[in-house]
Write a structure and sequence with these properties.
The chain is mainly alpha-helical. Helices cover 45% and strands 8% of the residues. It has ten helices and five strands; from the N terminus they run αααααββααββαααβ. Helix 5 (71-93) runs antiparallel to helix 6 (124-132). The N and C termini lie far apart (62 Å). 30% of the residues are buried.
Length: 238
């Protein structure tokens, strides 16, 4: 009986450990110290604290999402993972002028299979396309950051299950109404190539691209408005 009780308790302890979440506060402190409110990253300063970022990456590896996590917890985890590994890849090669100048064994940062989450290893492209985009929430595009000027800004805090929904809403509205990225009038819009590259996320059975933009735009766009896409600036976001 005692052996059975011991085995039961042991099993419950493993179940609890498997369901535990990483300490996102490690990333939160790092971002708050080295990322401005406008999304500019002090890579030079952050590079000195690479060990702190590495500690967080180990947290992500040790605490991968479990079946009992909420959808928001999983979303926060993978957004943080994408952003943290992007920072890691940039810092490893810094100083660089553009994320496009970075490669590992001949592969760009989105094709480099070094993202270790739980017992699996991914590329950033897989985290974005095979996990986050399949969650069916286009707002993830305004939360993940590609370390470039034309990207939606990196938030200077870590995401959690409790803040991810509200913060994605704020970042989506901020990006769409930022004239540095999108020039919006009622009859004509010049918008980020992000909306062209991920058109299938913004044009669905539920809404057209313009209808999606109108959910957040302070200027209401006419249904027949002319759409153009602005060149993407891949300069480092520093």
């Amino acid at each position: 009986m005692k052996n059975l009780l011991f085995i039961t308790c042991l099993g419950l302890s493993f179940l609890s450990f498997g369901s535990s979440q990483p300490d996102h506060s490690i990333l939160d402190r790092l971002l708050n110290e080295f990322v401005s409110s406008t999304g500019k990253v002090n890579y030079k300063g952050m590079k000195i604290k690479m060990d702190t970022l590495d500690t967080y990456l180990l947290e992500l590896k040790a605490h991968a999402p479990a079946s009992d996590w909420s959808k928001n917890d999983k979303k926060a985890y993978y957004i943080n993972a994408y952003n943290a590994y992007t920072l890691k890849f940039v810092l490893t090669k810094y100083p660089v002028a553009s994320v496009k100048d970075i490669s590992f064994s001949g592969k760009d940062i989105w094709s480099t299979k070094l993202v270790k989450l739980g017992d699996k290893t991914y590329t950033l492209g897989q985290v974005e396309n095979d996990i986050l985009r399949k969650m069916g929430d286009p707002r993830i595009h305004f939360a993940i950051n590609c370390a470039s000027y034309s990207c939606p800004k990196i938030w200077n805090h870590a995401y959690t299950g409790s803040n991810v929904n509200g913060q994605m809403e704020k970042l989506t509205k901020a990006y769409i109404n930022d004239a540095k990225h999108n020039i919006i009038t009622a009859k004509k819009i010049k918008i980020s190539q992000l909306f062209e590259w991920y058109a299938s996320d913004f044009v669905t059975a539920e809404h057209t691209l313009i209808q999606y933009l109108n959910k957040y735009s302070t200027v209401q766009i006419e249904a027949g408005a002319k759409v153009e896409y602005l060149p993407y600036n891949w300069s480092l976001n520093e």
